[in-house]
Amino acid sequence: MFQQAGFLPAETVTVPDQRAVERTADEVVALVFSISSTAPHLFGDRRSDYETDVRRVLASASPSGRFSVRLPDNIVRIWRLPAQLP
């Protein structure tokens, strides 16, 4: 699509991360609700039932309520116009 607008093929740069960060159950629930396929409005009047189920699974997986999450690498795509080449 960008190439149809006159841009050169994208240059892809991977910025490694892979840090491990610790999350609370509340942070994991907030992350789940921030994903478009599990946004709160999609559950209507059953949102609290869904959250209860998520929290039950989380408690079963980690009774301490703490979770370690490895951050993915960052992928940067740079689109340039032909005149912007170095």
Q: How would you explain this protein's 3D organization?
A:
By secondary structure, the chain is of the alpha+beta class. It has a domain at 20-71. It is 29% helix and 23% strand. The chain has helices spanning 25-34, 47-61; strands at residues 11-15, 20-24, 66-70, 74-78. It has a two-stranded antiparallel ribbon with strand order 1-4. Strands 2-3 form a two-stranded antiparallel sheet. The protein is elongated. The protein starts with 10 loop residues before the first strand and ends in an 8-residue tail after the last strand. The model has no long low-confidence stretch (mean pLDDT 93).
Counting helices, strands and paired strands, the structural category is: alpha+beta
- H/E element string? EEHHEE
The biggest sheet amounts to:
2 strands, antiparallel
Q: Whole-number average pLDDT? A: 93
The quaternary state of the protein chains shown equals single chain
Q: Please give the number of β-strands.
A: 4
Span between N and C termini? 23 Å
H/I helix tally: 2
What strand order characterises the main sheet? 1-4
Helix content percent band = 25-40%
Shape: elongated
Unreliably modeled segments: none
Strand content: 15-25%
State Rg: 20 Å
Offer a concise description of the structure.
The protein is 29% helix and 23% strand. With 86 residues, the chain is α+β, with helices and mostly antiparallel strands.
Task: Write the SSE topology.
Blueprint: E1 11-15, E2 20-24, H1 25-34, H2 47-61, E3 66-70, E4 74-78
Antiparallel strand pairs: 1-4, 2-3
